[in-house]
């Protein structure tokens, strides 16, 4: 006997055609699944009534797995085979994990993404995440009495293409159809925006287990627009645990800790952190495998003190996001708190002080992302008639292509809302050029060498034409999941080439932060560098053209004096080119252009004569 | 005869309508499709139609169009939990046979 849910007017599904969709918050520490039931977004519980599924997977030698609480319970006794916080490794290479040495895993550097050695063989973070998603899918299907048509899975706003792709791969592996990847803060805004219907500019402060994101959103007339995002992909509740852990080692004068003891103390540290949200001080006790005893008392003041720098690390990106959005603190109408870590009192306090208002936390910060994702999934599955709201996300870094001289031409600007498609026309640089290499880059800097290379492909079969004759339209398209495809098309011949950007796994999000920071710090230097490169390219082209012309008929058309003048002009330009003064190069380029004007005019006359010689007037179509 | 709600069903419906923020009540209906000939519809109601039959049960307004009422008269709507699943269940005295899924019935 099926159990029915109340549908929106006119949206009742035919029997066996229920469009069951869920929202999944695939978190670093905990994961959740939610759905919309009878018009209400609810988190789905397991058989024991628990909403959270710890994002922990334990592998057994026979290949079977434990996921969630049973796995978490074993993490100190079986640290190598019990994988926690796998999300941190999604789409990352070993070189992106500076703290790999302090983690209790045996990493294997596989091409593209790290793997973790377990008794069941090497497992990639994608496989680990898929195990978590499978459990959530199973829970959802049992709770809803049918197969899912799809899921919306949330990712941190700062996830790059590699990490988003890895998340999609994990979902596919778990047998889930991904309706869309949704940025976590956007999902939180959906949950708050619809439930509270409050318009205005909001900041979403999301401190999860392993990532920090700050997003500035505008909610108006039911439309969510992300104005700016910033954050730190390697900062979260785990770091607070780690600070307590280090404090324990220091206070108890411990060293040479074994992996299972490290795991045990980290667990104790996390428990202490959670207890401190309700109590002014907590006692931490543990017995290590060496027989050593730990018995300490941690007060709220000391906890605040040892984590002050972590809290401050969240305020810098907050300032930047506001600046990117062109807003002041006063413009922010409310601050939405997301992520279990925002329960810490020093966080509530610091955020309140920074934004000069009490942060909003009337929805459970652990559940708000999943609830919003479920609402979005419900819309995408087609269960809502009044589909009157849009969801706008932004791309975190500008996307562009390399042009002559190693310069970047940005095609899609950073913070553009997605999905987006932009096209720009380019042309050939040399006469008779039949191919063009398209180099797709990501970043804010002016020079390709300072940006991140995403992909390279070639457009071949361009018909030979004079330089500047071909018209090549390059189109960049970013889909709703933030994945990029680039195509190039020569207009006269119709030849086309394209690439879907699946960047090599392994961009560290710290790099994104660094790229943004350096672009701001180097704005002026970059402008000069761009001007220099442009002049260098222009000068090089002029010298090349004149040399070719001189070779062809210089002796014939020029007197010795004229020839000497042009040679002198070229020599001065060449010497200017050795320097780095773009103004000097510009001046010499203009001068050489001027000197060679007569020569160019004579060449023109001669070619006209040549074209006419031997033809009768009536043969010419004038 | 009439169409009624169990108290449990009414409590949940009131809660859903309050959360949704709008709606005058609940609309029950019958459609001619499904493996056994007919199927139930269960929707929020935003407006009344002139021809609707109205029933009030535990404070919830239940609306039914005249065509559907013939098949639904005497029905009690219950809210049930089965394992992890939960939702509404039609106890319909008119239904002669039901398909295994319970979403479709014949008279």
Question: Which properties best describe this structure?
Answer:
heterodimer, A: 622 residues, alpha+beta, 15 helices, B: 107 residues, three-stranded mixed β-sheet, 20% helix, globular
3D architecture notes:
The complex is a heterodimer of chains A (622) and B (107). By secondary structure, chain A is an alpha+beta fold. In chain A, β13 (200-207) and β14 form a beta hairpin. In chain A, α12 packs antiparallel against α13 (560-578) and α13 (560-578) runs antiparallel to α14 (582-595). The longest helix of chain A is centred in the C-terminal third of the chain and has 35 residues, at 523-557. The model of chain A is unreliable at 386-390 and 503-507 (pLDDT under 50). Chain B is built from 2 helices and 9 strands; from the N terminus they run βαββββαββββ. In chain B, a hairpin with a 6-residue loop joins β2 (25-31) and β3. The A-B interface holds A 1-12, 14-16, 37-40, 44-47, 139, 142-145, 197 and B 12-13, 15-16, 19-21, 26-27, 29, 31, 33-35, 39-46, 80, 82-90, 98-99, 101-104.
List the helices and strands and how they pair.
The complex is a heterodimer of chains A (622) and B (107).
Chain A: E1 21-26, E2 30-37, E3 40-43, E4 53-54, E5 56-59, E6 65-67, H1 69-73, E7 82-84, E8 107-109, E9 114-118, E10 121-123, H2 125-144, E11 150-155, H3 161-173, E12 178-183, H4 184-196, E13 200-207, E14 212-220, E15 223-232, H5 237-251, H6 259-275, E16 281-287, E17 293-299, H7 300-306, H8 308-324, E18 334-338, H9 345-355, H10 368-380, E19 391-394, E20 399-403, E21 407-412, E22 417-418, E23 420-426, E24 435-442, E25 452-460, E26 472-478, E27 484-490, E28 496-500, H11 509-521, H12 523-557, H13 560-578, H14 582-595, H15 597-612
Parallel strand pairs in A: 1-11, 11-12, 13-18, 15-19
Antiparallel strand pairs in A: 1-2, 2-3, 2-4, 5-6, 5-7, 8-9, 9-10, 13-14, 14-15, 16-17, 19-22, 20-21, 20-24, 23-26, 24-25, 26-27, 27-28
Chain B: E1 4-5, H1 7-20, E2 25-31, E3 38-45, E4 53-57, E5 60-64, H2 66-72, E6 76-82, E7 85-91, E8 97-98, E9 104-106
Parallel strand pairs in B: 1-6, 2-5
Antiparallel strand pairs in B: 2-3, 3-9, 4-5, 6-7, 8-9
